Write a sequence for this structure.
């Protein structure tokens, strides 16, 4: 697969569905898959490392990235922090022929749909609403107010499923990651 321009895969879904966990499972089992590291203005959660989980930047740095067109997409997420995908690493990964993936929110996926319509858009869906709530509460990284804000957003995000090319239900992380990699390795005409 390496040696020709590859097709970008965009993974999105509601908050707490496990996008980051599925992406980490893909990264661990398939080092040949390049996964973009997003920039964000939010503070790191416990255990998150700059440049590994996100590029943690100031509002001023993010403003500069927007002004210089250094972001493929960006959005304000959960009415708080900004997130965006640095453009140059994506372009380099695609040009190198590596399987390439963005793990982003719905707003970002919509922007990428406009700028890169040939990408494969994959919606990661929870097995149920109750499971999504359990996962959000269980991770214990947000205040009660933040959880409520994220759940309001999650309902809107779940309604966007028809905008995507393919849906994967995240019953189990490794199964979802394997299904995603299988999709990534198929030629575009097979989908």
């Amino acid at each position: 697969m390496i040696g020709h321009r590859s097709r970008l895969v965009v993974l999105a879904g509601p908050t707490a569905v496990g996008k980051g966990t599925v992406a980490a499972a893909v990264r661990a089992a398939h080092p040949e898959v390049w996964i973009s590291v997003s920039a964000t203005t939010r503070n790191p959660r416990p255990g998150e490392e700059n440049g590994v989980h996100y590029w943690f930047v100031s509002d001023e740095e993010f403003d500069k990235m927007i002004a210089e067109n250094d972001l493929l997409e960006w959005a304000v997420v959960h009415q708080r922090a900004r997130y965006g995908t640095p453009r140059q690493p994506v372009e380099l990964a695609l040009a190198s022929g590596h399987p390439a993936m963005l793990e982003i929110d719905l707003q970002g996926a919509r922007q990428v749909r406009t700028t890169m319509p040939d990408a494969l858009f994959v919606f990661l869906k929870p097995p149920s609403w109750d499971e999504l709530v359990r996962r959000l509460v269980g991770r214990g990284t947000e205040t009660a107010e933040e959880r409520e804000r994220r759940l309001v957003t999650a309902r809107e995000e779940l309604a966007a499923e028809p905008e995507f090319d393919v849906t994967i239900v995240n019953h189990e992380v490794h199964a979802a990651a394997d299904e995603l990699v299988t999709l990534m390795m198929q030629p575009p005409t097979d989908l």
In short: The longest strand covers residues 71-77. The chain has seven helices and nine strands. Residues 14 and 159 are 10 Å apart (CA to CA).
